[in-house]
């Protein structure tokens, strides 16, 4: 498996990753390093453990925000899906009604033709 060396909070780490994931791991590590720099700038020097905890909390908070937004969007979209299903059901009912009306008209046309043929013979 491939390995990459990343630097976070001034320390190098050798990371094993999946084939083709090297650049993604490097890009993610740059985000972590940026977060560590930002935290150090705001809070002063942090131990490795404290930096890990603070970055983890920051990421967990961001994830919670995204999950809340997702849930709000799903709550807004769900009624649209229900309405779309109702509209499809109405369309199917209209199509069935049109098919039934066409069948009735066709049957009436056959009866009229039969009556006309009978009158022509008379």
UniProtKB/TrEMBL annotation:
Entry superkingdom: Bacteria
Biological-process GO terms, alphabetical: cell division
Keywords: Cell cycle, Cell division
SUPFAM superfamilies: Cell division protein ZapA-like
InterPro entries cross-referenced by the UniProt entry: Cell_div_ZapA-like, Cell_div_ZapA-like_sf, Cell_div_ZapA_N
Name assigned to this protein: Cell division protein ZapA
Organism annotation: Rhodospira trueperi
